[in-house]
Amino acid sequence: MMPVRALARVAVLLIAAGLAGGPVLLGCAPVAGPAGPAVLQYLGQRRVWPAATVAGTVVGGLSAISYDAGRDHYYVLSDDRSQRNPARFYTVGLALSDTGIDEVRFTGTQPLLDEHGRPFPPPDLDADPPVVPPDPEGLAFDPDRQRLYWSSEGERRPPALADPWVRIAGLDGAYRGTLRLPPVLTMSADRRGPRRNAALEGLTLSPGGRWLYAGMERPGYDDGDPPDRTRGALTRITRFDVDSGQPVAQFAYPLEAASPPAKTNGLTNLVALSDDTFLVLERAGSRRPVVRIFRAEIAEATDTLAVASLSDPAVVPMRKTLALDLSTVPGLTPLDNVEGITLGPPLPDGRRSVVLVSDDNFSPLQTTQFLLLAMGPVRP
């Protein structure tokens, strides 16, 4: 990580009071947390100034967030494909209260490094061979092993092909290894394997640190068509054994149909409540998105690790129920392209915080925002 003095110089408060959102106590829906029945309640948001910078990097494209309780800060991943600055993550401090987010402070940034200890270069798909930097999308902090797991969606723009990956990084961004992916996630120039920009979108570590789960945004070619406005689809969530780095199981997750004006829908991230229960983010559209949180559980779902296609009628998908439709919560304005979710610390009233972050796609027409939910009985 950056030296303490350097961190102090870049600890820039990027939020103004005018960009804050207050608490809303409506729009709650049942969801089972790790200790049983609970509810999700929207408390408020804070937004980041457009084109804000930290240590010379542009803050944007925030696609994943993971909480470090020991340091009481968050690791936040940018999905910049090294086009503006090298692929990187940020450290962020949030001051949370029972009424919302009082402050957002970026305290540092760290490039993710390749196997040779170097930051990833900008893309050059016309080079021979093509230079294909990662497309970072998922991030999970491992408190026991003091490391990060991060995913790339890869690339499918023949002749430039790059497989998705799940890599291990130190807290200094250094390369620490790669998990082995199942064959169904191998990128191909043919109509098989993952679709472009629809592969490994979300990562979460189980509370005990035994399992890492990686969710695909939408189905691969072998698994059928993506969701449209008339029907949903099945996508895959892979379970990895953290100690061995091997995929050990896989499950079909049922995506909702797209909500107009969006043409499709996808899984953007997930967070584990237990070894087999999750909060899952689905998002349809990016500029006027429909963003929903579902409680999903593996239950009797089929292990699809060796299943060639999810169109097989014998496949039993995971079970899910709607926890909260953020698009319908009164007072939640604006609602942008929410892509990251993590469990945060207990709030002063005892409920568990759930923190979300949005990806502004580096667009002046969109917003980088942090949103706070409470998981637990509704407080007046």
UniProtKB/TrEMBL annotation:
<dbReference type="InterPro" id="IPR027372">
    <property type="entry name" value="Phytase-like_dom"/>
</dbReference>
<dbReference type="InterPro" id="IPR011044">
    <property type="entry name" value="Quino_amine_DH_bsu"/>
</dbReference>
<dbReference type="Pfam" id="PF13449">
    <property type="entry name" value="Phytase-like"/>
</dbReference>
<protein>
    <submittedName>
        <fullName>Esterase-like activity of phytase family protein</fullName>
    </submittedName>
</protein>
<feature type="domain" description="Phytase-like">
    <location>
        <begin position="58"/>
        <end position="362"/>
    </location>
</feature>
